[in-house]
Amino acid sequence: MTRGAAARAAIVEGWPVLLVVLIAGAAFGIIARQSGLSVVETSASSLIVFAGASQFASLELLRTGVSGPAVALAILLINARHVLMATAIRPHLAGVPVLRRLGLAYVLTDEAFALGIGWFRRGHRDVTYYAVFGVVLWACWNAATLAGALFGGGLEGTERFGIDFTIPAIFTAIVATTARHRSDLAVAFVAAAVAAIVRIAGASTLAVVLAGALAPVVALRMRRDER
Amino acid sequence: MTVWTAIVLGGVATYLMRALPLVVTLSRYCGVAEGNTPSSRAQRMLREYLDALPIAVLAALVGAGVAVPDGQLTGGAEVVAAGVAFALASWRRNLLVAVVGGVVVVAALRALGL
Predict the structure, then answer these.
(1) Which of A50, A110, A216 is facing B61, going by the closest CB pair?
(2) Alpha-carbon A106 to chain mean position
């Protein structure tokens, strides 16, 4: 497959996600302004942090008067899952020069990771798909944030139409289509259940990190039993 | 000033967590790079762990988001819709079909008050 075809595939498969990113980015811009951030601070958050969930959480913390370093710590915890994602995607970037890898790290998000891993696990080796999707998503998020901060208002009620569910749905579909072993399904089930339980128990910043790091142990057990 | 401290420190921490695993070559030193045959038990276990990691992280994102979509425990609509999306994706092997199915189901169930 040519690079052009891989780039097209990234957009053709990823456009529903990009649409959600545009809506969420605009919502972030609007809420950030309502929480008292300036337009420059709002855009700086999207440019420098560039991780949606942690950016929304930081607004709530800043609004309630939490100190800067404490907010940064919360951002760190919420984004700790990126360590796992980068570790998981690393083998697929073996042939990429270090400087490019440092660039690809900047556009590593839940969505780019999900789509990229889906692509690699279908047997493709080229990083173009991941790189193109990551950069386009970055552009969408930052443009939407700026637009929301500047023009604000009027973007409520998308939940009634289930638009917010697009992202969990696409992640679910990627899990279903890339599972290769019986143990993959067991790992997925355990990870989802543990994350849900931890989050319900109140430790929402830790849920994904804890569940993501623990669940693969199930695969070690199951595959040893198969041998 | 508080805002800038939060953004810059939080941003640097986030970038480091994204970048370090991509440049520190854990897998090569442990002999688990793609194509190598793992020679020891520890290497084989590490490879199997890393192999299962993407699915685990993705499923964890789904589990947390589906069970507690808005910071509150779901009434069940999201869990059912995730099941539908999973079934559609397994059956049709098509992401878009699964996503549209999941979104339609969640919208319908929310309209019913779940």
Answers:
(1) A110
(2) 12
Residue B98 at interface with chain A, using a CB cutoff of 8 Å? yes
Once rounded to an integer, what is the mean pLDDT over residues A99-106? 96
Which chain A residues are closer than 8 Å to B74 by Cβ? none
Q: The pTM is what?
A: 0.78
Residue A141 pLDDT: 97
ipTM greater than cut 0.95: no
**Nearest C-alpha of chain A: how many angstroms from B31?**
11
CA dist list (Å): A6 to A57, A89, A133, A167, B17:
34, 17, 10, 21, 27
The DSSP H or E segment spanning B11 is helix B2-23
3 state DSSP class of B76? coil
Residue A158's pLDDT is 59
Q: Are A94 and B34 in contact (CB under 8 A)?
A: yes
Radius of gyration of chain B (CA): 20
Amino acid A73: pLDDT: 87
The answer to whether A106 faces chain B, any CB pair under 8 Å, is yes
B90 — contact with chain A (CB < 8 Å)?
yes
Categorise residue B74: left if φ over 0, alpha if ψ from -120 to 50, beta otherwise: beta
Q: Is A63 exposed, middle or buried (0-12, 13-18, 19+ CB in 10 A)?
A: middle
**From CA B1, how far away is CA A46, in angstroms rounded?**
17
Type of residue at B106: V
Place of tokens 């929310």: B110
Q: Residues B18-50: pLDDT tens digits? A: 999 999 865 554 544 545 566 677 878 887 888
CA distance A117 to chain B (A): 7
